[in-house]
């Protein structure tokens, strides 16, 4: 299977798509600079690049969401001859057999999966809808592709993985010949991702062409036939996957050698925060904690490993002061906390990197500068005579932009224009400049590209070196094993006692995260509740 | 018990349904707009425009059904203004809606005054007459309550069914429900967000205008200043009460009509020792209470009030 997956079926009459000299500018920003790309029948092409490299812009042009300033898109017709595609017309792209699965799903959540799929496929002015035929076709598609989902559930009740399957079915239902997936794994658990890739291989073997936009190298190497790399809006490299190696692609994407983050030895200091027998019962296992005992020390990164949805949200809320325990105590610098108040916690030097950086990390309609200052508007640094001192705020933002390499048009640009990686750098700048005592980093590098990820790790290690405690909530084993000093596993609201990273076996950690294996050192802990 | 007597009288329900009729048109219109993601606060003015245009057309010699068509067109025209301002231009739906209300109201009064500069009491037309349907109108109770209303009331009930059918049974309705929840989903499927939203607002506004026309062409026989008297705003609240569903919209409008008919009757029964204003407040207070109970879990169309622009991320 895997050897077949790496041989690219490439003859000229198999050509399905040709992008030629695509250029697109947004104001002064050149998002795409004369990009050429071809895709053949049954081929899986990976489009790699850092955030902001122009991958999504290119695909939006292909799909008619944007109109290119220069260049053409051609798609093979039924006879295999290339024909120009009308620019700026999603309907033309759909008719040509191009289906796109956006990173942010384009599903109406109030409708069922079936309705979302049928939407727009029938003539609009008809007295009745024909769902029987659609259902038959979809059942057949689901059986052949292995993409199964309950089509009669409203979409808001589906899991992220199921929503993605609805999106793919939507394209297949329209007889797509080319499927474009924008960052398909960013929102999936590793198991879901693996099953999706298996489906893609199956579909490609039956003649479907696929473009995957991605930044996770390992996944792309496993599934694609060919790799094209974008950087700064230009195509900087293209190779068959069998010739590619991890390191060289990473360097091609980033444009320079990727620094490898390494911990340096450092003795931990005093405890910063301790949770003692903390229980939060919200009825829902995803938002509850049961008898949790953890302590984070100065100069130490404590990794909390777990598949998302196992109580991490409750833990993050608690440490940020947004929730209080039903039972048990929380101590900060050895002092028992009685008042749980986010502002108070922030005053104590607790800073957070929120899980959903778009939603909880910033205000999209406000400027970059305002977002930098937003958590500290009460500080005298940003005030003059009781009014906000915008000169000071802007100056501060300019420093942050240079120091943290935030790529944006300037301090006055609305924050929503920034890519995910740059938003995260912005949040890092806001959090770290205050020299916090404790950093709560919740999935800090999820969805980020190699460059931004290594930057996040470097910054967290720097803060650790400076004596901060870091609680790193993550489901990325590589990340946890690289930068954590101690790792504890969270599963169904229970957290094991922490183990030194050096003593941990990778596969054992994976099993513990899946809840299949109890903590090997559990007998050494004083809390019987964990092993029960 | 006097109260029981009031509630059991067919004449009470006849009044309740008559009061509810303009609201049914209005709520359905507001619901169609909002299902597509556009709040239409032009409703109060569109009611006025519909009342004025329909009545004037008939006074100028058009037939009653011709008058209704004119009213619907007038509503559609003001709806189009609101749609252009809020959909492709993406302006604030609140500001545009209130602007349309002011514009439509003033233009209606202006037209009326210009056409009839000297009259002290407005000229009358022959309005829709109560129906006399064989068998149905003779049924006990329901014959008087429902089937002796005018043709416009029957039209309102039919429109509830038609709106429900279109929204839930046709591809067009599917697209309207989708565009009010996530416009990007509609665009990704190759449909035009702008066309759907503009179309829904124009048609919804035409329905609102029929509610206004009912007042001058069925309930009364002339046009007065201030005769809409907040009915449009009531419809906006009833839309939330109805959770954007046509069937519940009918129930909400009937409930309001019943409160109103009830307070009039209660006034004559016990009006001696309570000021009449207390009774006039009653339907509104009861509506607010009903709204509080229902609207707390209201499931708003997610894209309501959110402008959408092609090609913007």
Strands, helices and their partners?
The complex is a heterodimer of chains A (532) and B (313).
Chain A: H1 2-5, E1 15-26, E2 29-40, E3 44-49, H2 55-62, E4 70-76, E5 82-84, H3 90-95, E6 98-101, H4 113-118, H5 131-145, H6 160-173, E7 178-182, H7 190-205, E8 209-214, H8 217-223, E9 226-231, E10 234-240, H9 246-254, E11 271-280, E12 289-297, E13 300-305, H10 312-319, E14 327-332, E15 335-336, H11 342-347, E16 350-353, H12 368-373, E17 383-384, E18 387-388, H13 390-403, H14 420-432, E19 438-442, H15 450-465, E20 469-474, H16 477-483, E21 486-491, E22 494-495, E23 499-500, H17 506-513
Parallel strand pairs in A: 3-8, 3-9, 6-7, 7-8, 13-20, 13-21, 16-19, 19-20
Antiparallel strand pairs in A: 1-2, 1-4, 4-5, 9-10, 11-12, 11-14, 14-15, 17-18, 21-22, 21-23
Chain B: H1 2-8, H2 10-35, H3 43-59, H4 64-86, H5 93-115, H6 142-145, H7 151-169, H8 171-181, H9 183-188, H10 193-219, H11 231-241, H12 246-270, H13 276-295
Helix pairs in contact in B: 1-12, 2-7, 2-10, 2-11, 2-12, 3-4, 3-5, 3-10, 3-11, 4-5, 4-10, 7-8, 7-12, 8-10, 11-12, 11-13, 12-13
Characterize the structure shown.
The complex is a heterodimer of chains A (532) and B (313). Chain A has 532 residues and is α/β, with parallel strands linked by helices. Chain A folds into three domains: 15-97 and 177-258, Rossmann fold, CATH 3.40.50; 109-175, no CATH class; 271-349 and 434-531, Rossmann fold (3-Layer(aba) Sandwich), CATH 3.40.50. In chain A, 31% of the residues lie in helices and 24% in strands. Chain A has helices at residues 2-5, 55-62, 90-95, 113-118, 131-145, 160-173, 190-205, 217-223, 246-254, 312-319, 342-347, 368-373, 390-403, 420-432, 450-465, 477-483, 506-513; strands at 15-26, 29-40, 44-49, 70-76, 82-84, 98-101, 178-182, 209-214, 226-231, 234-240, 271-280, 289-297, 300-305, 327-332, 335-336, 350-353, 383-384, 387-388, 438-442, 469-474, 486-491, 494-495, 499-500. In chain A, the strands form five sheets. In chain A, strands 13, 16, 19, 20, 21, 22 and 23 form a seven-stranded mixed beta sheet that branches. In chain A, strand 4 and strand 5 form a beta hairpin. In chain A, helix 14 runs parallel beside helix 15 (450-465). Residues 1-10 and 520-532 of chain A have low confidence and may be disordered. The radius of gyration of chain B is 20 Å and the shape is globular. Chain B has 13 helices and no strands. With 313 residues, chain B is mainly α. Chain B has one domain: Orthogonal Bundle (ABC transporter involved in vitamin B12 uptake, BtuC), CATH 1.10.3470. The N and C termini of chain B lie far apart (64 Å). The A-B interface holds A 65-67, 88, 90-91, 94-95, 100, 102, 104, 106-111, 115-116, 118-129, 170 and B 169-172, 174-175, 177-179, 181-182, 184-191, 299, 301-302, 311.
């Amino acid at each position: 299977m895997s050897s077949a997956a790496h041989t690219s079926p490439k003859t000229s009459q198999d050509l399905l798509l040709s992008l030629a000299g695509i250029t697109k500018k947004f104001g002064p920003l050149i998002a795409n600079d004369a990009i050429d790309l071809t895709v053949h029948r049954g081929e899986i092409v990976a489009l790699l690049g850092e955030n902001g490299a122009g991958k999504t812009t290119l695909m939006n042009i292909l799909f008619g969401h944007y109109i290119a300033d220069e260049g053409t898109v051609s798609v093979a017709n039924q006879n295999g001859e290339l024909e120009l595609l009308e620019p700026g017309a999603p309907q033309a792209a759909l008719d040509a057999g191009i289906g796109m699965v956006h990173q942010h799903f384009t599903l109406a959540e109030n409708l069922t999966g079936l309705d979302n799929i049928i939407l727009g496929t029938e003539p609009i002015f008809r007295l009745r809808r024909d769902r029987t035929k659609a259902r038959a076709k979809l059942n057949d598609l689901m059986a052949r592709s292995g993409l199964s989902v309950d089509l009669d559930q409203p979409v808001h009740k589906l899991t992220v993985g199921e929503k993605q399957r609805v999106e793919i079915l939507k394209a297949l239902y329209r007889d797509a010949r080319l499927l474009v997936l924008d960052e398909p794994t960013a929102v999936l658990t590793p198991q879901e991702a693996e099953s999706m890739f298996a489906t893609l291989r199956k579909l490609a073997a039956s003649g479907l062409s696929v473009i995957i936009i991605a930044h996770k190298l390992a996944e792309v190497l496993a599934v694609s036939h060919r790799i094209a790399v974008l950087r700064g809006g230009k195509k900087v490299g293209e190779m068959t996957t069998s010739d590619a190696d991890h390191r060289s692609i990473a360097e091609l994407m980033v444009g320079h050698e990727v620094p490898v983050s390494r911990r340096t030895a450092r003795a931990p200091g005093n405890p910063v925060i301790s949770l003692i027998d903390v229980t939060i019962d919200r009825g829902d296992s995803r938002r509850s904690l049961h008898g949790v005992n953890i302590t984070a020390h100065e100069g130490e990164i404590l990794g909390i490993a777990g598949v998302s949805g196992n109580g991490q949200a409750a833990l993050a809320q608690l440490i940020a002061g947004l929730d209080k325990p039903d039972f048990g105590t929380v101590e900060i610098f050895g002092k028992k906390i009685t008042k749980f108040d986010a502002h108070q916690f922030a005053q104590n030097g607790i800073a957070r990197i929120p899980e959903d950086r778009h939603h909880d990390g910033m205000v999209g309609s406000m400027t970059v500068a305002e977002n930098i200052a937003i958590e500290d508007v009460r500080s005298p640094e940003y005030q003059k005579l009781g009014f906000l001192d915008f000169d000071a705020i802007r100056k501060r933002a300019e420093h942050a932009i240079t120091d943290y390499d935030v790529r944006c048009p300037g301090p006055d640009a609305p924050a929503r224009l920034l890519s995910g990686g740059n938003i995260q750098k912005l949040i890092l700048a806001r959090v770290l400049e205050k020299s916090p005592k404790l950093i709560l980093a919740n999935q800090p590098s999820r969805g980020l590209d190699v460059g931004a990820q290594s930057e996040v790790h470097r910054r967290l290690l720097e803060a650790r070196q400076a004596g901060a405690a870091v609680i790193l909530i993550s489901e990325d084993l590589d990340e946890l094993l690289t930068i954590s000093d101690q790792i504890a596993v969270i599963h169904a609201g229970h957290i094991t006692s922490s183990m030194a990273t050096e003593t941990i076996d990778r596969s054992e950690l994976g099993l513990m995260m899946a809840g299949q294996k109890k903590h090997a050192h559990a007998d050494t802990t004083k809390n019987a509740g964990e092993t029960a | 018990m006097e109260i029981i007597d009031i509630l059991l009288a067919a004449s009470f329900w006849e009044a309740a349904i008559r009061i509810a009729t303009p609201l049914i048109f209005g709520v359905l219109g507001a619901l169609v707009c909002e299902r597509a993601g556009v709040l239409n606060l032009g409703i109060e003015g569109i009611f006025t425009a519909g009342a004025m245009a329909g009545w004037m057309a008939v006074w100028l010699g058009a037939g009653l059904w011709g008058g209704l068509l004119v009213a619907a067109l007038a509503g559609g025209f003001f709806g189009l203004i609101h749609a252009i301002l809020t959909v492709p231009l993406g302006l604030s739906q609140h500001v545009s809606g209130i602007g349309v209300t002011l514009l439509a109201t003033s233009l209606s009064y202006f037209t009326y005054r210009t056409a009839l500069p000297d009259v002290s009491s407005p000229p009358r037309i022959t309005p829709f007459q109560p129906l006399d349907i064989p068998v149905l109108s003779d049924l006990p109770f329901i014959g008087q309550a429902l089937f002796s209303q005018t043709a416009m009331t029957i039209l309102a009930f039919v429109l509830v069914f038609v709106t429900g059918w279109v929204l839930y049974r046709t591809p067009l309705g599917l697209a309207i429900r989708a565009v009010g929840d996530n416009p990007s989903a509609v665009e990704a499927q190759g449909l035009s967000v702008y066309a759907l939203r503009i179309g829904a607002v124009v048609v919804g506004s035409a329905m609102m205008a029929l509610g206004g026309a009912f007042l001058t062409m069925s309930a009364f026989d002339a046009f007065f200043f201030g005769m809409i008297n907040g009915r449009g705003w009531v419809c906006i609240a009833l839309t939330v009460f109805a959770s954007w569903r046509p069937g519940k919209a009918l129930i909400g409008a009937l409930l309001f009509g019943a409160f109103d008919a009830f307070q009039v009757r209660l006034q004559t029964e016990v009006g001696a020792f309570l000021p009449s204003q207390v009774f006039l407040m009653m339907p509104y207070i009861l509506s607010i209470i009903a709204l509080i109970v229902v609207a707390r879990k209201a499931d708003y169309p997610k894209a309501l009030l959110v402008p959408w622009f092609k090609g913007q991320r």
